[in-house]
Design brief:
Layout (H helix, E strand, L loop, with lengths): L1 H17 L7 H9 L54 H25 L13 E9 L4 E7 L5 E5 L8 E6 L2 E2 L5 E6 L12 E3 L4 H10 L5 H14 L6 E6 L1 H7 L2 E4 L4 E11 L19 E8 L18
Parallel strand pairs: 10-11
Antiparallel strand pairs: 1-6, 1-11, 2-4, 2-9, 3-6, 4-5, 7-8, 8-10
Length: 319
């Protein structure tokens, strides 16, 4: 029995050594040892097909500029008060450029983010027909600039980027005739206050607007020009709430710079929305100070769907 077991073991060992698949020749061992190339055994093809990399949705355009996790601006730097342009030309020009670059960055990030909660700049309420009035107790020539300049869509006279408007103030007012600088601009994502406001009823629209403007001290000409346009350009038979946005908030959204520096600047925009519930009364409205060289501006922020007989204009500002 032991003999047969020993014989069987010898036969198995002999078969393993002589097998062409398992046997390793002496020459192969030497080749591995010396680092010489040895014919490699073929790698079998995997039976599982690799999962392809996800493809980009062709409807979503790829970005053409970096998108850092942090915005490339410091919001606190946009709270600068008006300064004398005579002594700080370079600072003002740089700030206007920064403000324009910020607007472009925000606009394209909104367009290309394509997230479910993102708001597109084109869908935001535009600044509707702000009028800028300039008055002075002496004749002078003023240079007027806004930021961001790229947001301006239409203007009269035509706004010149990098230069703005040149305004001749004679006999107390612009062109000596009480004229005004007019513009429209794209909307922004500025958070306007909507706690205090005025109810503008369809049945008493002109009277309600006159009362509202009188709280701020707009003069007769400014008031009549506001009512003449907006009383007839709001959807008929609809009540509205006009939420006032005073000078500090307006300057934050769209700074205004003048050379020479005015003595007083008063800018009031009204964010207009359909009446749903009564707002709180306006407490301590800002009052216009009419002394020396001063500026007065009114405007309305409103969705196009409530703005009758108005087609959003393509830019008349040559860039």
């Amino acid at each position: 029995m032991k003999l047969w077991t020993l014989l069987l073991g010898i036969i198995v060992i002999f078969a393993i050594v002589c097998s062409p698949v398992l046997a390793i020749s002496k020459s192969e061992l030497i080749s591995y040892y010396k680092g010489q190339s040895v014919p490699a055994m073929p790698i079998p093809t995997p039976t599982v097909t690799p999962t392809p990399a996800p493809t980009q949705n062709p409807q979503i355009p790829s970005r053409f500029f970096p998108y850092p996790s942090k915005k490339p601006w410091d919001d606190s730097s946009f709270n600068q008060p008006s300064v004398d342009w005579k002594t700080e030309d370079d600072k003002i020009a740089d700030y206007v450029a920064q403000k324009s670059n910020r607007f472009i960055w925000e606009y394209f990030i909104n367009i290309f983010d394509n997230d479910a909660t993102g708001s597109y700049a084109a869908d935001l309420p535009p600044k509707g027909k702000p009028n800028i009035y300039l008055y002075s107790d002496r004749d002078l020539t003023a240079q007027v600039r806004l930021a961001p300049e790229y947001a301006i869509t239409v203007s009269e006279p035509v706004y010149q980027p990098g230069k703005g408007w040149q305004a001749e103030i004679m006999n107390g007012s612009l062109n000596g005739k009480g004229d005004f600088l007019f513009y429209e601009a794209l909307g922004s994502d500025c958070e306007w206050q909507k706690e205090e406001g005025f109810v503008i009823l369809a049945t008493s629209r002109e009277q309600d607007m006159a009362f509202m403007l009188g709280q701020y001290g707009f003069n007769e000409k400014e008031t009549l020009e506001f009512i003449d346009y907006w009383a007839s350009h709001l959807i008929e038979d609809m009540d509205f709430v006009f939420y006032p946005q005073e000078t500090a908030a307006v300057n934050q959204d769209m700074p205004l710079y003048l050379r020479p520096k005015p003595d007083h600047v008063m800018r009031i925009w009204f964010c207009a929305e359909p009446f749903v519930s009564a707002p709180g009364p306006v407490v301590n409205p800002e009052r216009i100070v009419r002394e020396g060289f001063y500026v007065v501006e009114w405007g309305v922020i409103i969705d196009d769907e409530y703005w009758m007989n108005h087609s959003p204009a393509s830019s008349e500002v040559m860039l």
